[in-house]
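Lecture 7 notes: from sequence to structure.

We start with a single chain of 330 residues. Read the sequence below before looking at the structure.
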Amino acid sequence: VFTNSRTLPCPPRHLLVLTSPSGAAIRDVLAVLKARWPLARVTLIGVPVQGREAASALIAALGLLNRQSTLDPERDAVLITRGGGSLEDLWAFNDEHLARAIFHSRLPVMSAVGHEIDTTLADLAADMRAPTPSAAAEMLVPDSHELAQRLVGLERRLSRGIQVRLDGESQHLDHLRSRLRHPGEALGRQRHLLRELEVRLCRAAQARLTNERQLLQHRQQRLGACHPRRELVHAAERLDRARQRLQHTMPRTLANQRERLAGLARQLHAISPLAVLGRGYAILENEAGQVIQRAPDVEPGQALTARLGEGHLDLKVIRVIKPSSTQGAS
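Now the structure, written as tokens:
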């Protein structure tokens, strides 16, 4: 019950306050919200905060809020608060049912009950605790004046950054302008380079063509000296001999492999659990598919499955007879 730690939205889109409409707590909360975040949308749900009816009223109001589909746990929040008082005045916030309702709340809950020294079960079950109602309002919303100052500072930093960037780009532009040359000069250099590359390409192509011709003549001479007809005759002879050896050894090899495969099949069948089942035995399994090996592993009324040699049976345990006693458990 005391493990909630969700982060409350800051500021919440809609703040729902559960407290007494006439108490000092709501006045403190509204005063702080007005000073720090005037845009806050606050809804007061008036409930008694002490007495016998306080806990049930808080639980009912919290349940009503959690049933509102328009409220979003990511953007809305609930504040349960009241001012200080004696232990008897705060006792409604020590109600177990209220603590469980806060723990199971769909909306995040902040609790601010009493003063800083007061701690209730509602504080422990809430997602966040504040020492006082005023402190809760300060924790729920940012300070608009501080945000305005931060925005002014960021605006100044942005202006300085833009000016620095503009100055840098201006200097870079001036540098590029100084390096800029007439395109005719670049075209002239490229034209000269193109002529040189053309001459080099013609020379390289001529040399490559000469080398290929010489290589072709050399290979033609080798091919004439080593005609493939002789190699084809020898290859045909080797192929015939290999075919004869294959025809001679293949039947024997196939027979040996068949005998070996039959022996392996007999061995596999001998150790197979299905062969044991075929001799009249059965395997009991629970609903999770685990094999039952001992009677104490099951309870009366538990459903089991018996695997047979052919098919299976759905069983239900009527009685468990343990090995140490003759009387079954019922």
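Confidence is low (pLDDT under 50) at residues 326-330. Keep this in mind for problem set 3.
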